[in-house]
């Protein structure tokens, strides 16, 4: 007579969806749901592979399925999840290799932080087009401070206008202020003619074109025949690119006629973003333009005779003119000018 090993089905069995399973079947079910192979389950439970296959066939017959995927779906739907014991091998692996895993984690974290830092700083690379400032022979710190205060007193797009004739030093002062402003984009616009303004803005947009799409847009603008259409599209593109930057500062130098520069002047922060605008001009009529506040206009005026003498001696002789006597060659040369 063959004696069969029969498990106690009355006390230890577990019911799932109304179907009774033995404790051994429950252990095998959890291993299957955990995604383990028959061979691994057999090794872990000290059974043969055929025995595991036998138990799984019985389980499939009980729930009425024909494949392993149907079996897993049935038990997942009925709330059977991998037992914690099924993952003891992963815990063991971590303990044995924790130094390697921690090292990999540190390396991956460092690479991620470096890439993030590079990306953030790449966006903030200064885009600058200013002639290199020469030695400032004439100290005008009070004027610079006054300009800074006017700019800081405003909200949104901050504007200051420097009016002065030839030789007043307005361009030098404008460039000095521009160099002191901490903006990722600082750009000098040659505002003498309509063409020079367009070319300056096109160069600015070219420097900000950091994607193939923007470069393609610029090429389309460049090839347009209608100048007004080119200008319109360039202004729209430039305003969009400037708004994307954190902050910007534009110097419109030597504005001759307001009608040329007017379409390019940033006035609406919703379109252009936040930034600063410095305008230098000889044209005193610009002070009457409606969108420019009188409190934002500074009339620099010509240099005083003392300032002219100091500038002359500093440039030619790199020395204070007070060191020379009234009949000294430097002052005599200056008076002959």
What is the CATH first-level class name of the largest domain?
Alpha Beta
What is the strand arrangement across the widest sheet?
3-5-6-7-4-8
Described by strand count, sense and barrel closure, the largest sheet is: 6 strands, parallel
CATH topology of the largest domain: Rossmann fold
CATH architectural category of the largest domain: 3-Layer(aba) Sandwich
**Cα separation of the termini:** 134 Å
Beta-strand residue percentage: 5-15%
The amount of helix comes to 40-55%
What count of structural domains? 3
Helical stretch count?
15
CATH evolutionary superfamily of the largest domain: P-loop containing nucleotide triphosphate hydrolases
> Which residues form runs of ≥5 with pLDDT under 50?
1-10, 84-88, 118-125, 333-337
Radius of gyration over all CA atoms, rounded: 40 Å
Give a summary of the structure in a few sentences.
The protein is of the alpha/beta class. The chain has helices spanning 23-33, 38-44, 49-63, 68-77, 88-96, 98-123, 141-152, 170-180, 194-208, 212-223, 227-244, 258-261, 269-272, 305-317, 329-335, and strands spanning 14-16, 19-21, 127-129, 158-163, 185-190, 248-255, 275-281, 297-299.
């Amino acid at each position: 007579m063959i004696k069969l090993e029969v498990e106690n089905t009355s006390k230890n069995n577990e019911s799932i969806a109304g179907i009774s399973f033995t404790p051994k079947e429950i252990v095998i079910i959890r291993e299957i749901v955990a995604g383990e192979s028959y061979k691994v389950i057999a090794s872990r439970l000290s059974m043969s592979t055929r025995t595991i296959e036998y138990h799984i066939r019985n389980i499939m017959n009980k729930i009425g399925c024909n494949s392993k995927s149907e079996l897993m779906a049935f038990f997942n739907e009925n709330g059977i999840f991998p037992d914690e014991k099924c993952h003891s091998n992963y815990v063991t692996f971590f303990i044995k290799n924790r130094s390697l895993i921690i090292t990999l984690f540190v390396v991956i974290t460092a690479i991620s932080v470096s890439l993030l830092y590079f990306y953030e700083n790449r966006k903030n690379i200064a885009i600058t087009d200013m002639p290199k400032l020469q030695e400032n022979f004439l100290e005008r710190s009070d004027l610079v401070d006054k300009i800074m205060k006017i700019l800081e007193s405003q909200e949104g797009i901050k504007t200051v206008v420097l009016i002065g004739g030839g030789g007043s030093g307005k361009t030098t002062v404008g460039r000095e202020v521009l160099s002191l402003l901490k903006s990722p984009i600082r750009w000098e616009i040659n505002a003498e003619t309509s063409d020079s303004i367009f070319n300056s803005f096109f160069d600015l947009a070219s420097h900000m074109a950091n994607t193939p799409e923007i470069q393609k847009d610029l090429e389309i603008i460049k090839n347009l025949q209608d100048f007004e259409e080119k200008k319109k599209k360039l202004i729209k593109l430039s305003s969009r690119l400037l708004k994307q930057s954190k902050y910007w500062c534009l110097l419109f130098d030597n504005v001759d006629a307001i009608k040329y520069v007017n379409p390019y002047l940033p006035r609406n922060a919703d379109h252009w973003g936040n930034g600063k605008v410095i305008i230098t001009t000889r044209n005193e009529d610009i002070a009457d333009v409606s969108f420019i506040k009188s409190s934002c206009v500074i009339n620099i005026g010509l240099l005083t005779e003392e300032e002219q003498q100091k500038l002359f001696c500093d440039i030619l002789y790199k020395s204070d003119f007070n060191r020379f006597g009234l009949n000294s060659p430097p002052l005599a040369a200056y008076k002959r000018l």
